[in-house]
Amino acid sequence: MITAAGSKFLGYKFTPEILAVRYTSLMDHPHPRIGVGVFVFKNGRFLMGCRRGSHGSGSWSVPGGHLEFGETIETAAKREVKEETNLEISRLKIAGVTNDIFESEGKHYLTIWVTSFWQSGTPRIMEPDKFIDLDWYNFDTLSSNLFLPWRQLFESDFLLTIKNLLAS
């Protein structure tokens, strides 16, 4: 907790002045964000959406978003899928991590790829500012216009893990 007197973290005392300097310093230097991409499996396919608004607009990817401060990866995955598609998911598993640099946009993400299985609900676009279309795909029917993190995913060892889970 931060108070007028400051904050204590791991035995170190941070005064408001120190916190202000550290915050300003962080804001002056770009740093990677953490994204979560969630495969929702159902009947041998997975849900994908055509992105809108944010970086990657017009490209296709699985539901996902930012990991919030203090949130577990699994909680973030469930929250993002529910917020974006109105689906409930279960059997979550971390499948891999990719290092994604969006040079033209000046953004850098570590994307944590999560696999899950559909539990209930009918896919609906809940955030029309983020998705313009949703549909079920498999690796043979993917769009050619995929969100940048998919390039790293295709080059990684994680892809085989994801394909094996989808086939199970």
Textual characterization of the structure:
There is one protein chain. The protein has 168 residues and is α+β, with helices and mostly antiparallel strands. It has two domains: 1-31, no CATH class; 32-167, Nucleoside Triphosphate Pyrophosphohydrolase (Alpha-Beta Complex). Helices cover 25% and strands 38% of the residues. It is built from four helices and nine strands; from the N terminus they run E-E-H-E-E-E-E-H-E-E-E-H-H. Strands 3, 4, 5, 6, 7, 8 and 9 form a seven-stranded mixed sheet that branches. A hairpin with a 4-residue loop joins strand 7 and strand 8. It is globular, with a radius of gyration of 18 Å. 28% of the residues are buried.
Number of strands: 9
- Residue windows where pLDDT falls under 50 for at least 5 positions: 1-12, 21-26
Overall helicity: 25-40%
First-last Cα distance: 46 Å
Order of SSEs? EEHEEEEHEEEHH
The CATH superfamily of the largest domain appears as Nucleoside Triphosphate Pyrophosphohydrolase
So what's the overall shape? globular
The CATH class label of the largest domain is: Alpha Beta
CATH topology of the largest domain: Nucleoside Triphosphate Pyrophosphohydrolase
Describe the secondary structure blueprint for this structure.
Blueprint: E1 7-9, E2 12-14, H1 16-28, E3 33-42, E4 45-51, E5 60-61, E6 64-66, H2 73-85, E7 88-102, E8 107-120, E9 131-137, H3 149-154, H4 158-167
Parallel strand pairs: 3-8
Antiparallel strand pairs: 1-2, 3-4, 3-6, 4-5, 4-9, 7-8
